[in-house]
Amino acid sequence: MTKKRVAVLISGRGSNLQALMDAQQDVYEIVLVVSNVPGVAGLERARAAGIEAIALDHKPYGKNREAFERDLDALLIERRIELVALAGFMRVLTPYFVRAWAGRLINIHPSLLPKHPGVNTHARALEAGDAEHGCTVHLVVEEVDAGEIIGQAQTPILPGDTPETLANRVLELEHALYPRCLANFARTLAA
C-alpha cells in the first residue's frame, strides 16, 4: 500500500505533531508541516525530522481568512497532499477550506465531544462537574467541533484537579490517540 501524504497544520510547540511523527506507520507519511505563526517550536521539530516546514503567517491577510486559506490550499495541492491533520492549529477554518478538503481533514480536540466544543475545555469540564474528560479525533466540518467522531480517549476527573493538571493528563491521551486515529483513517482512505 502506498503511504498517504499527510500535511500537519500547527500554531505552536507541536507536541501532537511530535507524537504523529514518532508514530509514523506504513499507512501515512508526514511530508509537510505548515504553521500560521512564524517561528514556533513545531516548525523546528519538523525540520529536525527532515520534514518540509513552512510558516504561512496569517497576519498579512488581515481579516481575509479565505485568501489565507486559498494560499494554504495551493501549498497543499502543489505538494500532492492527500490528508490534512490539524494539531493545535488555532484558527477556525472557513467553509471554502473545509469544503475543499472534505473527508480528508481531521482534528484533535481536548474534550469528549459533543461536550465542550471550542476553547477552555478543561476549565469548562471542571465547572460542569463532569466525572470524566478526554479528547476526540474528528472529521472537520463547517460547524466547529461537530464532525463525525473517529476516536476518543478519556480520563477520570480527580478531586483537586485544576485546568492545568487536567490539561496535562488529556495531552498524554492525545499523544496516544491521534497517531492511532490518523493511521486508521489513512487506511480507510486507501481502501
Describe the 3D structure.
- The structure is a single chain.
- By secondary structure, the protein is of the alpha/beta class.
- It has one domain (4-190): 3-Layer(aba) Sandwich (Rossmann fold).
- Helix content is 37%, strand content 23%.
- It is built from six helices and seven strands, in the order βαβαβαβαβαββα.
- A seven-stranded mixed beta sheet has the order 3-2-1-4-5-6-7, with helices on one face.
- The radius of gyration is 16 Å and the shape is globular.
- The model has no long low-confidence stretch (mean pLDDT 96).
Features of this protein?
single chain, 191 residues, alpha/beta, Rossmann fold, 6 helices, 7 strands
Structural class: alpha/beta
Secondary structure tally, helices: 6
Tell me, what's the shape?
Answer: globular
CATH topology description: Rossmann fold
- C-alpha termini separation: 9 Å
What is the topology?
Layout: E1 4-10, H1 15-22, E2 28-35, H2 41-48, E3 52-55, H3 65-78, E4 83-86, H4 95-100, E5 105-109, H5 121-127, E6 132-139, E7 149-156, H6 163-190
